[in-house]
Amino acid sequence: MNQAVEADPLGPAERARSNFIRDIVQCRNGSTLASTTLSSPIPKRIVQFWNDLRHLPGDVKACMDSWKRLERFGFELEVFDESSARAFIRSRLGDRHEKAFDRCYHPSMMSDYFRYSYVFVEGGFYIDADDVYHGTPIDQLFADGRLKLQPFCYDVATSQMVAPSIFTEPGANQPGWIFYFNTTPLIASRHHPIVERALLNATLSLEMEQARGLPEVQATTGPGNLTRSVFEVLNEGCSPDAMMVAHDWELTSTSQWSLSYRNDSRNWRLSNQQAYRASSLLGAQ
C-alpha cells in the first residue's frame, strides 16, 4: 500500500536555502582563512541591548551581568537602550537607517536592527540580553574577522528545536527540519559583507509598505533575514571562509527561557505582527 508523502512545510526556495545552510553547518572540514580582509582581529567588545534600561527585569540583568567577568581579561562591555541605539544609528549611518529603526514595532526588532548596525560599523561581539555566559574562553572568537554564527534546526513535525549534537552531524536530516542561523551571537569585523547584507535586507523590508499589516519579525529582522543574507552573499561568490559556524555554542552561552518577560508582550513570539503598546513597554531584548 502506498503511503502518502508528507508535504514539505517549506516552499522550493526556502527548502533550497535550508539545504544550503545544512551543508554549511554539517561541513566539519577546517579551512584556511584566505582573505587578508578578514584576517584582522575583532575588537574585544561585547555589546548588549535592552530597550528600556530603567525597567530592566532582575532576571535579565543577572543574565547580562554574567558577561562582566570578561572585563578582567581586557574585554569592553557596552549596553545600549532604545535611545542610545537610535543615536548611534543616526550618527554613524544616517537618516535612512534611523527611519528604518523607528519602523521596528517591537523591541526584539530594534535589537536585531541595532546589532546589524553596530557590528557593521564597529565590529565586535553582540549577544542577546537573555544569554548567560558559562565562563569558557572566547579569545579565539576575536582572533580573525570572520562572521561567527550559531546554527539552529527546527523540527516542524514535533514543533521543537533539534539538539545541535544531532543536527550538526554530517548527513543528519529529516523532511520537516529547517536549518538556519540565529542572530545571537553576532561576531564579526567591521564592514563584513554578510552583516552589511543583513542590514540592507532588513532596511529594505522595513521600508516596504505593509498593506497586510505589520511585517513578520523573523523574516524582517530576525534569523530569517540573517539566514537569507548568508545564502545570498555566499551564492554571489563570497568565500565560505568569510564565516565560521559555532557548532558547540551552547558550551559558551545559552539563552534562558524561564524569564519573566517571556510571559507578556515583551516576548516577540506573543507580539508578532501586533502593535506593541507603550503601556506595557517595560523593556525587551
Structural overview:
With 285 residues, the chain is an alpha/beta fold. It has nine helices and eleven strands. The longest helix is centred in the middle third of the chain and has 16 residues, at 107-122.
Quickly describe the structure.
It is built from 9 helices and 11 strands. With 285 residues, it is of the alpha/beta class.
What would the keywords be for this entry?
single chain, 285 residues, alpha/beta, Spore Coat Polysaccharide Biosynthesis Protein SpsA, Chain A, four-stranded mixed sheet, three-stranded antiparallel sheet, 33% helix, disordered C terminus
Write down the Rg: 19 Å
Oligomer: single chain
Known CATH architecture: Alpha-Beta Complex
> What value does the average pLDDT take?
88
Number of domains: 1
N-C termini distance: 51 Å
Walk me through the topology.
Blueprint lengths: L11 H14 L19 E5 L8 H8 L10 E5 L1 H11 L2 H8 L4 H16 L1 E3 L4 E3 L13 E3 L1 E5 L4 E2 L2 H4 L9 E5 L4 E3 L4 H15 L9 H4 L2 H13 L7 E3 L7 E3 L30
Parallel strand pairs: 1-2, 1-3, 5-10
Antiparallel strand pairs: 3-9, 4-11, 6-7, 6-8
